[in-house]
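Data card: per-record layout.
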Amino acid sequence: MNITYCEIAGVIFITPEILEDERGYFLESYSYKNFPVQTNFVQDNISFSSYGTIRGLHIQNNKPQGKLVMALSGCIFDVIVDLRKDSPTFKKWVSIKLHSEKKNQVYIPPGCAHGFCVTSKTAHVFYKCTEFYNPNSQIEILYNDVDLNIPWPVTNPIMSIKDKNAMSLKKYLNIDN
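The structure for this 177-residue chain is written out next.
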Protein backbone atom coordinates (compact mmCIF):
# COMPACT_ATOMS: atom_id res chain seq x y z
CA MET A 1 0.00 0.00 0.00
CA ASN A 2 1.46 3.34 -1.08
CA ILE A 3 0.42 6.17 1.26
CA THR A 4 0.64 9.87 0.31
CA TYR A 5 -0.16 12.55 2.86
CA CYS A 6 -1.48 15.70 1.28
CA GLU A 7 -1.44 19.33 2.40
CA ILE A 8 -4.67 18.95 4.39
CA ALA A 9 -3.90 17.17 7.65
CA GLY A 10 -5.50 13.75 7.86
CA VAL A 11 -6.37 13.47 4.15
CA ILE A 12 -4.53 10.45 2.79
CA PHE A 13 -4.22 9.27 -0.81
CA ILE A 14 -3.82 5.49 -1.03
CA THR A 15 -2.67 3.33 -3.92
CA PRO A 16 -2.92 -0.39 -3.17
CA GLU A 17 -0.49 -3.07 -4.21
CA ILE A 18 -2.20 -4.99 -7.01
CA LEU A 19 -1.28 -8.62 -7.60
CA GLU A 20 -2.13 -9.52 -11.20
CA ASP A 21 -1.86 -12.71 -13.22
CA GLU A 22 -3.73 -14.49 -16.02
CA ARG A 23 -6.78 -14.96 -13.73
CA GLY A 24 -7.16 -11.28 -12.97
CA TYR A 25 -6.04 -9.36 -9.91
CA PHE A 26 -6.16 -9.27 -6.12
CA LEU A 27 -5.75 -6.30 -3.81
CA GLU A 28 -6.26 -5.48 -0.17
CA SER A 29 -8.55 -2.45 -0.11
CA TYR A 30 -8.52 -2.05 3.67
CA SER A 31 -6.72 -3.63 6.59
CA TYR A 32 -7.23 -2.43 10.15
CA LYS A 33 -3.66 -3.35 11.10
CA ASN A 34 -2.07 -1.59 8.09
CA PHE A 35 -4.27 1.49 7.83
CA PRO A 36 -2.26 4.67 8.60
CA VAL A 37 -4.83 6.14 11.03
CA GLN A 38 -6.88 4.54 13.76
CA THR A 39 -10.48 4.28 12.59
CA ASN A 40 -13.65 2.44 13.42
CA PHE A 41 -15.67 2.02 10.26
CA VAL A 42 -19.36 1.35 10.97
CA GLN A 43 -21.12 1.69 7.61
CA ASP A 44 -20.37 0.94 3.95
CA ASN A 45 -22.11 2.78 1.09
CA ILE A 46 -22.20 2.41 -2.69
CA SER A 47 -23.52 4.99 -5.13
CA PHE A 48 -24.04 4.69 -8.88
CA SER A 49 -24.06 7.82 -11.03
CA SER A 50 -23.82 8.84 -14.67
CA TYR A 51 -21.44 11.27 -16.36
CA GLY A 52 -21.66 14.83 -15.09
CA THR A 53 -23.28 13.96 -11.76
CA ILE A 54 -22.02 15.95 -8.78
CA ARG A 55 -22.75 14.62 -5.31
CA GLY A 56 -21.83 17.04 -2.56
CA LEU A 57 -20.33 18.91 -0.95
CA HIS A 58 -21.64 17.06 2.14
CA ILE A 59 -20.74 17.16 5.83
CA GLN A 60 -22.41 15.90 9.00
CA ASN A 61 -22.29 18.43 11.83
CA ASN A 62 -23.13 16.06 14.67
CA LYS A 63 -20.94 12.96 14.71
CA PRO A 64 -18.95 13.89 11.57
CA GLN A 65 -17.97 11.03 9.32
CA GLY A 66 -14.52 9.96 8.24
CA LYS A 67 -14.69 8.27 4.83
CA LEU A 68 -12.54 5.91 2.79
CA VAL A 69 -13.60 6.41 -0.84
CA MET A 70 -12.87 4.30 -3.95
CA ALA A 71 -14.28 4.17 -7.50
CA LEU A 72 -15.29 0.56 -8.13
CA SER A 73 -16.06 1.37 -11.78
CA GLY A 74 -15.39 4.47 -13.79
CA CYS A 75 -13.61 7.65 -12.75
CA ILE A 76 -14.48 10.53 -10.41
CA PHE A 77 -13.07 13.94 -9.57
CA ASP A 78 -13.13 13.75 -5.77
CA VAL A 79 -13.01 16.91 -3.61
CA ILE A 80 -12.28 17.34 0.09
CA VAL A 81 -12.79 20.68 1.90
CA ASP A 82 -11.27 21.17 5.35
CA LEU A 83 -13.98 22.65 7.60
CA ARG A 84 -12.28 21.99 10.94
CA LYS A 85 -12.08 25.45 12.49
CA ASP A 86 -8.94 24.59 14.48
CA SER A 87 -7.08 23.27 11.42
CA PRO A 88 -4.22 25.22 9.81
CA THR A 89 -5.77 24.37 6.41
CA PHE A 90 -9.29 25.53 7.38
CA LYS A 91 -11.34 26.32 4.22
CA LYS A 92 -8.71 24.81 1.91
CA TRP A 93 -9.60 22.06 -0.53
CA VAL A 94 -7.81 19.28 -2.41
CA SER A 95 -8.92 17.01 -5.20
CA ILE A 96 -7.90 13.65 -6.55
CA LYS A 97 -9.03 11.59 -9.53
CA LEU A 98 -10.15 8.20 -8.30
CA HIS A 99 -10.12 5.65 -11.09
CA SER A 100 -11.31 2.06 -11.01
CA GLU A 101 -8.34 0.95 -13.14
CA LYS A 102 -5.86 2.42 -10.63
CA LYS A 103 -7.96 1.25 -7.66
CA ASN A 104 -6.72 4.29 -5.73
CA GLN A 105 -8.53 5.60 -2.67
CA VAL A 106 -8.73 8.66 -0.45
CA TYR A 107 -9.28 8.80 3.30
CA ILE A 108 -11.21 11.89 4.40
CA PRO A 109 -11.05 12.67 8.13
CA PRO A 110 -14.11 13.74 10.15
CA GLY A 111 -14.78 17.46 9.88
CA CYS A 112 -14.11 17.71 6.16
CA ALA A 113 -16.79 18.20 3.52
CA HIS A 114 -16.77 15.75 0.62
CA GLY A 115 -18.10 15.72 -2.92
CA PHE A 116 -17.37 14.18 -6.28
CA CYS A 117 -18.12 14.51 -9.97
CA VAL A 118 -18.40 11.56 -12.34
CA THR A 119 -16.03 12.04 -15.28
CA SER A 120 -16.60 8.67 -16.99
CA LYS A 121 -19.81 7.39 -18.63
CA THR A 122 -20.90 5.95 -15.26
CA ALA A 123 -19.27 5.24 -11.91
CA HIS A 124 -19.87 3.04 -8.89
CA VAL A 125 -18.38 4.69 -5.80
CA PHE A 126 -17.75 2.75 -2.59
CA TYR A 127 -17.10 4.42 0.73
CA LYS A 128 -16.60 3.23 4.27
CA CYS A 129 -17.79 5.61 7.03
CA THR A 130 -16.67 6.06 10.63
CA GLU A 131 -20.12 7.21 11.76
CA PHE A 132 -23.64 6.25 10.76
CA TYR A 133 -25.45 8.49 8.29
CA ASN A 134 -27.71 10.96 10.08
CA PRO A 135 -30.03 12.83 7.68
CA ASN A 136 -30.88 15.37 10.39
CA SER A 137 -27.20 16.28 10.74
CA GLN A 138 -26.16 16.37 7.07
CA ILE A 139 -25.51 19.74 5.50
CA GLU A 140 -24.99 20.49 1.82
CA ILE A 141 -22.57 23.24 0.79
CA LEU A 142 -22.67 24.74 -2.71
CA TYR A 143 -20.34 22.81 -4.98
CA ASN A 144 -19.54 26.02 -6.89
CA ASP A 145 -19.22 28.35 -3.91
CA VAL A 146 -17.23 31.44 -4.94
CA ASP A 147 -15.13 31.34 -1.75
CA LEU A 148 -13.91 27.84 -2.61
CA ASN A 149 -13.48 28.35 -6.39
CA ILE A 150 -13.22 24.63 -7.18
CA PRO A 151 -12.64 23.94 -10.91
CA TRP A 152 -15.23 21.19 -11.38
CA PRO A 153 -14.78 19.33 -14.68
CA VAL A 154 -18.39 19.83 -15.87
CA THR A 155 -20.42 22.95 -16.58
CA ASN A 156 -24.00 21.63 -16.34
CA PRO A 157 -23.95 19.02 -13.58
CA ILE A 158 -26.70 16.56 -12.74
CA MET A 159 -27.55 17.12 -9.07
CA SER A 160 -30.09 16.32 -6.39
CA ILE A 161 -32.56 19.01 -5.28
CA LYS A 162 -30.72 19.19 -1.93
CA ASP A 163 -27.38 19.81 -3.62
CA LYS A 164 -28.89 22.39 -5.99
CA ASN A 165 -30.33 24.23 -2.98
CA ALA A 166 -27.18 23.91 -0.85
CA MET A 167 -26.00 26.72 1.39
CA SER A 168 -22.98 28.94 0.82
CA LEU A 169 -19.79 28.35 2.74
CA LYS A 170 -20.28 31.68 4.55
CA LYS A 171 -23.74 30.62 5.72
CA TYR A 172 -22.40 27.23 6.85
CA LEU A 173 -19.62 28.89 8.85
CA ASN A 174 -22.20 31.03 10.70
CA ILE A 175 -24.06 27.93 11.90
CA ASP A 176 -23.27 27.05 15.50
CA ASN A 177 -21.38 23.81 14.85
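Known properties of this structure: The chain has two helices and 13 strands. The chain has one domain: 2-16+37-173.

See the next section for split statistics.
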